[in-house]
Specification:
Blueprint (H helix, E strand, L loop, with lengths): L1 E9 L10 E7 L2 E6 L8 E3 L4 E5 L1 E6 L12 H11 L1 E6 L10 H10 L4 E4 L15 H7 L14 H12 L5 E3 L4 H4 L4 E2 L2 H6 L3 E2 L2 H18 L13 E3 L5 H12 L4 E6 L26 H12 L5 E3 L7 H4 L16 H8 L5 H6 L3 H6 L15 E11 L18 E10 L1
Helix pairs in contact: 4-7, 7-8, 8-9
């Protein structure tokens, strides 16, 4: 297979080719030529007005529904959605049925992707119940890229502490979404003026911030424990889905004192506030919930100054029976693989394209300690071709995911993936 990409702007912040417009020739998965003009026969020619190319996009947080809930999303529809969104690699949460807690389940997920590389994350505790540990060393050796209870934040501080101590012995990465579930029980949306106006039980941002403070303090304790050895310049603890201004400040302070931490924000959190729930549209029911404009501004500032390392989709398909209900009965979650780049590109007013792309290419791989592809002659192709300027309307009938629970339905977005080449 020979692919020629014509007159494409290279977007790769750390590359000497960054910002240059070149022709790129790929044959059998290898980049053979990068020149001003290439006149070679190709099986596929990709061209267009003002198109760009970067290394393949990487999503840090995807909820696979197979095995167990294939009616919400199969491997095939998830992979198709990822390709449509420009992703060549995705990291999968362990909350399937059965839970990813064995060598066999890790290997099963690793083999499931055909055109998109699946990176399984394994459970910290058996069945993600927060009680008994999985065999983390065995799972690490099988290929688990990180450890997390995924949809279930680790509530028990002793479990959290011992996990950090355990993973520090082999450089594993713990991913936790900070939430004290005792403070969010039966919550439906952000605890604020809108929840009061709508008569909904709120989910206070304090629940996120208290858990963040706890986790940071436990990490400090582990670092001060004798014989604890950590990889140089690598994070052992990653916070997923921060959503409040104070959370950004806590992460910033933790980094300032040298704690080995990273964090991400979900793309939809960068686009909406609590006010968007005024009409009870369950496609806006997410966890963490959409918060205030002040929080939204702080998230963008955190991205701009590097406090927030990456942007993830938190792609969580839910079928009609789970969403077309009264608001308090509906499931949390939105799909996001197909709209991640378009959403952040549309709502972005602060960050350069190079910085934005780095948040969905280089940094996710750094967090998971995975190889970072490069755009250079002789390298294996791992590329995403995209348009920064194309405007399009995201309509339900064009959704590729098996589920349709998106808050962006009917909205005009700017920027679109064109092709993934691996």
């Amino acid at each position: 297979m020979k692919t020629l990409i014509r007159s494409v702007k290279i977007v790769s912040k750390n590359s000497d080719l960054n910002g240059q417009v070149k022709d790129i020739f790929v044959e059998n998965g290898n980049i053979l030529h990068i020149e001003n003009e290439i006149n070679l026969e190709a099986d596929e020619i990709i061209e267009g007005k003002n198109i760009c190319v970067s290394i393949g996009w990487f999503d840090l947080r995807v909820h696979p529904k197979e095995p167990g809930n294939e009616y919400k999303e199969s491997f095939q529809s998830m992979e198709a959605a990822a390709l449509a969104g420009g992703f060549s690699e995705i990291a999968l949460l362990p909350n399937t049925k059965p839970v990813v807690q064995s060598r066999e389940s890790v290997n099963y997920l690793k083999r499931a992707g055909e055109k998109v590389k699946f990176h399984p994350m394994a459970a910290v505790t058996l069945k993600c119940e927060g009680k008994d540990f999985t065999e983390m060393i065995d799972l690490h050796q099988a290929g688990a890229v990180a450890f997390t209870d995924g949809e279930h934040p680790i509530q028990n501080p002793d479990i959290f502490l011992k996990t950090l101590q355990y993973l520090s012995q082999f450089g594993g990465v713990l991913i936790n979404r900070p939430e004290d579930s005792n403070l969010t029980h039966f919550g439906q949306m952000h605890d604020g003026l809108m929840s009061t106006f709508l008569g909904m039980k709120g989910m206070p941002q304090m629940a996120e911030e208290i858990m963040l403070m706890r986790d940071l303090k436990l990490l400090e304790y582990v670092l001060n424990t004798p014989f604890t050895e950590l990889p140089v310049d690598k994070s052992i603890l990653h916070f997923s889905g921060i959503s409040s201004a104070e959370s950004v400040n806590l992460i910033r302070m933790g980094k300032d004192i040298g704690l080995p931490i990273t964090c991400d924000v979900y793309a939809h959190q960068l686009c909406f506030t609590e006010n968007d729930l005024a009409d009870f549209n369950t496609n806006f029911k997410v966890n963490p919930p959409f918060r205030t404009q002040e929080d939204l501004d702080a998230l963008w500032e955190g991205l701009e100054d590097g406090t927030i390392d990456a942007i993830a989709s938190d792609h969580n398909p839910q079928d009609e029976e789970s969403k077309k209900l009264e608001f308090d009965m509906a499931e949390f979650g939105v799909i996001g693989l197909e709209t991640l780049f378009a959403a952040i590109n549309t709502y972005n007013e602060k960050i350069s394209l190079e910085e934005l792309i780095e948040k969905i290419t280089v940094n996710p791989r750094k967090i998971l300690q995975l190889p970072i592809p490069t755009i250079a002659v002789g390298e294996k192709a791992n590329l995403t071709v995209f348009s920064e300027d194309e405007e399009w309307v995201y309509r339900e009938k064009r959704i590729i995911s098996a589920s349709k629970n998106s808050p962006f339905i009917g909205k005009t977005l700017r920027g679109k993936a064109i092709s993934v080449i691996v």
